[in-house]
Structure of Tetratricopeptide repeat protein:
Amino acid sequence: MRRFLLALLAVFSLNAVADDTWKPFPYDQSAFDYSGDKLREAWPRLTRGFGANYPFPDADWVVTMATKHPEALEKTVAAGTGFSGKPEEAQVYAEKLQDVWRKVFRGDFAQAKKDGLALGVGGQVPGMFAQVLYAMFLAPNQDEKQRLLEEVISYTDEAGPLLNADPIAQFGRAYAKARLAEDLPVPVVLKRGYTSEIPKELDALLAKQPNQPFALALYGGYEAGVIRKVGKLVGKMTYGVSADKMEQYFARSFRAADDLPIGHYEYANALAYVYGEDEEQKALEQLKKAVAIKPINAMEALEVAHAQQLLKKAQQEMALR
């Protein structure tokens, strides 16, 4: 066990150093100041995509998690975080964890990952969340994007019960697999088992949180992605996906939260994958909804910028016809 923990620590340290090369957040960060009590006040809105009542990481939460997950506590102690499970140490640890989240929401992704991993598995949730965002929006090329997403999956799988019980960690792993499944050839996706793992993991997440907007939108996107790659007939017969199910997942996601940029541009993509030009006006409307949303954190700023690019491209293609 000790040898394993030391090896885990070594991996954390190596990755933290390597991530100093990450590109900085490219947009204005002044609106994403969640210093002091601002973080707790904004927390329900900042985390609305992960469902209602995602717990704020205060001292009480730290003590509860340490009590419920002794294996995670052991790893946290071994990582030299300064937290040994004592209640009197929880406040300091919680403040450090909150600072990691502030960095995520501000767009300081490399530092968020480094500081998060330095806190052991408790800090891995925001650390890996930062890595997913960087991989999707700022990675310099496809190879690096895929490497970072694969690393997120590995970290989450190795972290144990605490990470696997956390809805953000669960979503992050399924999201990473879904994005990889879009880019990789079908034989590779099948060999890795993503076609069975993604719906299984999303079903498990939605069983506990039936109205989690991100998970519902991802499920809709997964259904559309399979149809895009193998067609409606094979998709339904082999994988159980359909256009109707795709529509239902997105409808549920929008009922839960209609102000998430990613939900609207993912739906626009899904409409294009499933219907092509037949629903291009509806897809265009979804992109316009996405770009009209005022971002409240770095993630949403990146999503709105991505939606703007998609909208511009779609409008140019339509003008050429």
